[in-house]
Amino acid sequence: MQPLFDDVTFEVGTPAQLAAMRTQPARALFSEATIAFLDDFSRYLLQHPAARGWPDVATLAFWCRRRALEREKQRYADLPMRLGRGLAFHITPGNVATSFAWSLTAGLLSGNSNLVRLPSRAFPQAALICEALNQVLQHHPGMAPYLCLVRYPPDRRLNDLFSSWCQTRLIWGGDNTIVTLRQSPLPPRSLDLAFADRYSLALIDADRYLAIADKAAVAASFYNDTYLLDQNACTSPRLVVWLGDRQRIAQARGLFWCELETLAAARYPLQPMVALNKFSRFCQHSARSGQLKQASSANLVFRAELSQLDGETLAQREAGGYFLEYLASALEEILPVCGSGCQTLAVLGVDRDAIQQFLAAHRPAGIDRVVPLGQTLAFSLRWDGFDLISALSRCITFAL
Fold it and tell me: Which UniProt keywords apply (predicted)?
């Protein structure tokens, strides 16, 4: 008996395809059919006039090109020994427009059929991506059984049903979402991949920054990391740590924030409620901590300077251009904020060897990614400490 999906809106796929997904055979990883499909999907988006207005869509399309996918494929030496696990059920966050598409891409490349619950918010980027998928599927009908993108309101019954079908459940969307979804049991051999609430920080060496001629380019990189998604991405730095002596830091800070304010004034439409929320968050944070002072006069780029870091430093955070700052004389001073909640460390002017030595010496519970400033939003198949291709596939061992 086919389940009823009266409360489910199908953006890509059909009820019959969804019902059949639980018995769909797994595919080889990075199969030619999958790469060809994603390459055509990429081409469709890159040629679509509307995509030019959405940098996040353009980034997705560029990543899905055949050349980029073949490069990713070369990172895995054991692909002939792997198969997809089966049905992957993706629950994606409601505050980032394209996260669902990245999760879907990982599921397809790892050989799975994919049921994706879209954000409840009607992002225009999501509509464009679904349009592209539907158009490209017309030329790749063999891929249709492997992806189904749906929307439905919070419904324990549907969560229970889809969870009972899947071999892997990916929960993107924060701690509360994880707690709710885990009330729906999985089959005994199924896996949960949970992407919890995280935070990120930037580390800038003052001397190296001052030596850079094109400081406007640095500001543009930091703007893309933060304002582009309104600091809603867990990868967006909320804390900026300056490294060096105080005099050089003072000089670097003045130039850095001035460049960012100029850029934000030209590009970022500050809403009154966002401005009010930032000031309110500062007041709340300041009342709870005696280690905080306002470091900016304008609200567009709102800065609060900390006199010390601890495990609660980033518990209070706000979006829309709200930044904490800390002045450090040694790299080790960031250790208190490198707990399990710390995801990405964006660096400018700090040597790779110094970061590796810090990680080897202190082995913090957090920091899953170290990237250059300006690259925090760049997707990778290694995310939040998981290798998604390995986690979403099973390895067949031969002992002959």
Answer: NADP
Single-letter amino acid code for the residue at 197 = D
Contact assessment for residue 346 and residue 320, using Cβ atoms and an 8 Å cutoff: no
Cβ–Cβ < 8 Å for 116, 90: yes
* Predicted local distance difference test score (pLDDT) of residue 291: 75
Query: Helix 246-267 vs helix 215-226: angle between axes, to the nearest 10 degrees?
Result: 70
Report the 10 Å Cβ neighbour count for 157: 12
Q: What is the pLDDT of residues 257-268, one digit of tens each?
A: 999 999 999 999
Residues 182 and 192: their CA atoms lie apart, in Å, by 9
Mean pLDDT of 379-386: 93
Please state whether beta strands 82-84 and 393-395 pair in parallel, antiparallel, or not at all (unpaired): antiparallel
User: Is 19 strand, coil or helix?
Assistant: helix
- DSSP-assigned beta bridge partners for residue 369: 344
Instruction: Give CA–CA dist 173/170, Å, rounded.
Output: 10
Assess whether pLDDT exceeds 60 at residue 296.
yes
Record the tokens describing residue 217, joined without a space.
């380019």
Burial state string for 61-75 with b = 16 or more CB within 10 A and e = fewer than 16: bebbbeeebeebeee
> Is 338 in contact with 365 (CB distance < 8 Å)?
yes
Q: Which among 35, 9, 253 is positioned nearest to 122, based on CA atoms?
A: 9
Residues 380, 369 contacting (CB under 8 angstroms): yes
- H helices of the chain, where? 15-20, 32-47, 55-63, 66-73, 99-109, 124-137, 156-165, 175-181, 206-211, 215-226, 246-267, 272-288, 352-362, 388-391
Cα dihedral sign, 258-224-236-152? positive
The domains found in the chain, sorted by start residue, are: 9-197+384-395 (3.40.605.10), 199-372 (3.40.309.10)
What's the DSSP call for residue 28?
B
